[in-house]
Design a protein that fits this description.
72% helix; flat; 10 helices; 295 residues; MetI-like fold
Length: 295
Amino acid sequence: MLYDRPGPRTRKRILAVSIIVSLALATLVILVIYRLAAQGQLTEEKWGPVVNPANPFFVALWANLGLAMLRNGEAAVLAMVSSLLLGAVLAVTRISLPRWGRWSVVAPMEFFRGLPVVIAIFFAARVLPELGVSLPLLWYLVIGLTAYNSVIIAEIVRAGIASLPRGQAEAAAAIGLTRGQALRLILVPQAVRVMLPALISQLVVIFKDTSLGFVIQYVEAVRFVGIAIQQLRNPLQLYLAIGVIFILINYGLSRLAVWAEWRLTRVRPGAVVPKATTTLTPGEPILAGTSAAGG
């Protein structure tokens, strides 16, 4: 127990405070709804395109919003794959290099880790064309997301490998494995269990960050909603709808991280080591064919 069990008086105080807070929150919700209704934010004209299938804008709105979300997903998948690959390479390179040579990897990692992701995206879309690198807007978004998230993933991978017992690397060296072989065959496979939940959580961040594509005019979900608002004049409703969509997708990815952690750490029935039940009595031979006196 981290604290004493509340007594009768404390339980009454907790109940009273809970009732007061609940009433205050209910009053706030009622006040917000009243203010929204007074400003005409609860009318069919505002909510119809979002929730009413009979509205003439409903089908077109959700069809185009679905396509925009697919563009978010496309950018997210490309950024996730490239970030995982580049992050793993950076982590292994940092670990494998001698101490005096690690600055060549650590310096750019620290630079991009301290850089806001929106600046990385904007930098990719504005500077690369000046250098003669002309790409579709999708790839500028992917490059910006990869530049930021790959260094985060590299730190996750490095921390996962560093969390393993030192004896794992020493045992690999004792049987003649090189540093690269030890990483590939022994350390990284074990570290995956440790770092998988953090990796999946970072993938959630990557998907959320795809919404920053609007800063380079990439037509993803947020950019499409901004365009739709100019015609439908209902920013509150559309931003609320897209917010709910992002919450549901990210919640699903978060639950995937929880499930993956449980799946990797649960004890399988076949892997349980049976407890020793055999006991020796005085004078009983330890091995077949021997006597208590030896032989």
